[in-house]
Amino acid sequence: MTSLSDIYLASPRGFCSGVRRAVKLVEQALRDYGAPIYVRHEIVHNRHVVESLRQQGVVFIEKLSEAAERGRPVIISAHGAPKSVYLEAEKLGLRLIDATCPLVEKVHKKIVRLAQEGKNIVVIGKAGHPEIIGTVGQLDDVSRCQTIVTPQEAESLKFKDEAPIGMVTQTTLSVADVAEITDILRRRFGQIEALAQSDTCYATTHRQAAIRELVKHAAAIVVVGSKNSSNSQQLKKIAVQAGAVKAFLIDDVSEMPWDELADIRTLGISAGASAPEELVAQIVGELKKRYANLKIHDIIVADEAAVRKYPATA
Predict the structure, then answer these.
(1) Under a CB-based contact definition with an 8 Å cutoff, are residues 259 and 284 in contact?
(2) pTM of the predicted protein model
């Protein structure tokens, strides 16, 4: 039996700026207003973050009508929300705090502009995901808008007329998947309007690049993130596509697949954009206890501290 000898840590990993901002807004609201604070949908898709805030007095709701105490603040999650939610909040007299990720807001602005220009709109994303619901929900008329998520759907996509096409994407999708779908759309429909840089956010792009680099060094990959986190799911998927012998998506150290690692010498670790760094630290700490002379390496693909602001235009 071989023994684990080297750990490779992806950098960047874990919280992105949008998630960090959203969590700070909730924590600040708790300090300013006390409990309870209502949050529409999970503030971010991470079980540990949600449970920690719940213990501090945050009540997570899906409908604004579930806010039992109408005078209390209601926070919009980082995924954003349809325009109808803001209108409903105004009618109910609720005090809204908007924690929508600025990069998601950028997509919202773009889809509204595309609609105003009379274009047919392709939304690349998972139809039931809160971010896509919020993005499509910016439109008053969705008759020109279609949501797809696979190359097969791109191949069969049809519109009622030949109006120019504009495109937006879910910010947490695989960069490679978005590029493949975009190529199909361009082949079928000619020139379409996409952003100069993909709607996929820089944090997602960096974490996916780091996973691909990890696979060059490590046989097995562990991604820390909750099962309902789209960006975490994508990291595991990319690890497999890049050639990892084994890849796992786990919530925390309690889910470490120790038996599966029995024949592994090199292990790569990353974390989705909604996973706290402390979860990675706990895993590394347990690995050090179990394996003597373990070597830790940092695989750095980007410096997010150098990204000083969000793109301002759509």
Answers:
(1) no
(2) 0.90
Domain boundaries, the chain: 6-15+202-305, 17-101, 103-189
Options 3.40.1010.20, 3.20.20.110, 3.40.980.10, 3.30.9.100; CATH for 6-15+202-305 is 3.40.1010.20
- The tokens of 273 are what? 């954009």
pLDDT digits (tens, 9 = 90+) for 10-55: 999 999 999 999 999 999 999 999 999 999 999 999 999 999 999 9
Cα–Cα distance between 159 and 146 in angstroms, integer?
9
Contact 7, 298 (CB under 8 A): no
Q: Is 259 exposed, middle or buried (0-12, 13-18, 19+ CB in 10 A)?
A: exposed
Instruction: Give the Cα separation of 247 and 309 in Å (integer).
Output: 33
Q: Does domain 103-189 have CATH number 1.10.275.10?
A: no
Same fold: 6-15+202-305 with 103-189: yes
The span from the CA of 311 to the CA of 94, in Å, is: 30
3-state secondary structure of 191: coil
Domain 17-101's class? alpha beta
Give tens-digit pLDDT for 3-15: 899 999 999 999 9
Q: What span, in angstroms and rounded, lies between the C-alpha atoms of 235 and 216?
A: 15
Structure tokens at 49: 């973050």
Which are the catalytic amino acids?
131
- Tell which residue, 277, 299, 283, has the closest CA to residue 206: 299
Q: Indicate left, alpha or beta for 243 from its phi (over 0: left) and psi (-120 to 50: alpha).
A: left
Distances in Å between the alpha carbon of 159 and those of 119, 120, 188, 313?
A: 11, 7, 12, 27
Radius of gyration for the alpha carbons in the chain, expressed in angstroms and rounded:
21
Burial grade of 173 (CB within 10 A; 0-12, 13-18, 19 or more): buried
**Contact between residue 173 and residue 230 where contact means Cβ atoms under 8 Å apart:** yes
